[in-house]
TrEMBL record:
<dbReference type="InterPro" id="IPR050214">
    <property type="entry name" value="Cys_Synth/Cystath_Beta-Synth"/>
</dbReference>
<keyword id="KW-0028">Amino-acid biosynthesis</keyword>
<dbReference type="Pfam" id="PF00291">
    <property type="entry name" value="PALP"/>
</dbReference>
<keyword id="KW-0663">Pyridoxal phosphate</keyword>
<keyword id="KW-0808">Transferase</keyword>
<dbReference type="InterPro" id="IPR036052">
    <property type="entry name" value="TrpB-like_PALP_sf"/>
</dbReference>
<feature type="domain" description="Tryptophan synthase beta chain-like PALP">
    <location>
        <begin position="12"/>
        <end position="309"/>
    </location>
</feature>
<keyword id="KW-0198">Cysteine biosynthesis</keyword>
<dbReference type="GO" id="GO:0004124">
    <property type="term" value="F:cysteine synthase activity"/>
</dbReference>
<dbReference type="InterPro" id="IPR001926">
    <property type="entry name" value="TrpB-like_PALP"/>
</dbReference>
<dbReference type="GO" id="GO:0006535">
    <property type="term" value="P:cysteine biosynthetic process from serine"/>
</dbReference>
<protein>
    <submittedName>
        <fullName>Cysteine synthase</fullName>
        <ecNumber>2.5.1.47</ecNumber>
    </submittedName>
</protein>
<dbReference type="InterPro" id="IPR001216">
    <property type="entry name" value="P-phosphate_BS"/>
</dbReference>
<comment type="similarity">
    <text>Belongs to the cysteine synthase/cystathionine beta-synthase family.</text>
</comment>
Length: 338
């Protein structure tokens, strides 16, 4: 085992463990192996650190983004936390454009890193409004803002091609299947691109909340599916991201699971595997089980998925509470001492 030494936070991004979920395999009575990449072990606690670093680095290398500038980031949460953290590291001001119903824990963390906010209506499935608002703001004030669109930026795909995908291969070799929930589709498509290059028969599937199967329908019929509210924060943003359209040819299948299934599985992962994961991690593991079963994978076959973030990011959601807590964001921010 090699012990890690980081000269700075950037060097601590990625190189996450991959963990076999043997207790879940047994509990769910599946013959195949479920392997999960522990992305909650990134510095800010989510998979999005990888992408935020690649996107900021690309813009800085091109000379377009310089310290002191303000970046505008539409997000439903984890991206905002990663950009807020790395923004402070690189000396950038950060304006987060975010739906007002996202969990309070997220705003508080972004504020810890010094970010400012612009709120848009709605919750998780309303990311499109945050995206349009941020885009308009940046277009109207080009000298003031540098705009990041995580749903289309190729650096997002590249981050997962060069790091997450490569790490999986280095850790366990070629898997038989890979599945990930679609937020931007960056994780899914970056890993897919790497695996499809190196592993002849790998099955790659996208996954979405069953209540908002916009991309899942689009994959199967060419037409966007019905929009709906769901509770799997960070994914199912309510439109088909550019990245998913760009790399559709890499996908073999699409799986859906309900918010309820995701929440129950996230709790089960805590109780059986002692891993404190968020709701989309539950959804990913449910999706891995469904995918392995529907493709008839048996003993010795490996299905890989992602554990994108931590349970502690969900105290106000139904992962912990009977009812999702909708709090007054402005009040929370006013009351903060930072
Ligand atoms: N789960 C969570 C909790 C997330 O925040 C995200 C990113 N929005 C994802 C999954 C999906 O990742 P990606 O954007 O790479 O599709």
């Amino acid at each position: 085992m090699s012990l890690r030494v980081c000269n700075n936070v950037i060097e601590c991004i990625g190189k996450t463990p991959i963990i076999r979920l043997q207790r879940i395999e047994k509990d769910q009575n599946v013959d195949f192996e479920i392997w999960a990449k522990a992305e909650f072990m990134n510095p800010t606690g989510s998979v999005k650190d990888r992408m935020a670093y690649y996107m900021i680095k690309k813009a800085m290398d091109k000379g377009e983004l310089k310290p002191g500038m303000t970046i505008v980031v539409p997000t439903t949460g984890n991206t905002g936390i990663s950009f807020s953290a790395l923004g402070s590291y690189f000396g950038l001001k950060v304006l987060i454009v975010i739906p007002e119903e996202m969990s309070a824990e997220r705003f508080m963390l972004m504020r810890l890193f010094g970010a400012d906010f612009l709120f848009t209506p709605g919750g998780e499935s309303d990311a499109g409004t945050a995206l349009e608002t941020a885009k308009k703001l940046a277009e109207e004030n080009p000298d003031k803002y540098y705009f990041f669109d995580q749903w289309s930026d190729e650096a997002n795909v590249q981050a997962h091609y060069e790091t997450t995908g490569k790490e999986i291969l280095d850790q366990i070799g070629c898997p038989d299947a890979f599945v990930a929930q679609v937020g931007t589709g960056g994780t899914l498509m970056g890993v897919a691109k790497r695996l499809k290059e190196e592993c002849k028969n790998v099955i790659v599937a996208g996954a979405e909340p069953a209540e908002c199967p916009v991309a899942a329908y689009w994959f199967k019929t060419g037409k966007e599916g019905p929009w709906g509210r769901h509770e799997i924060e960070g994914v199912g943003d309510g439109f088909v991201p550019d990245i998913v359209k760009r790399y559709k040819h890499l996908l073999d299948d699409f799986v859906t699971s309900t918010s309820e299934e995701a929440i129950m599985m996230a709790r089960k992962i805590a109780r059986l595997e002692a891993l404190p994961v968020g709701i989309s991690s539950g959804a990913n593991v449910v999706s891995a089980i469904k995918l392995g079963r529907s493709h008839g994978l048996g003993k010795g076959k490996k299905v890989v998925t992602i554990l994108p973030d931590y349970a502690a990011r969900y105290f106000s959601t139904r992962l912990f509470k009977k009812k999702r807590e909708i709090v007054d964001r402005k009040k929370i921010l006013e009351e903060l001492s930072i």
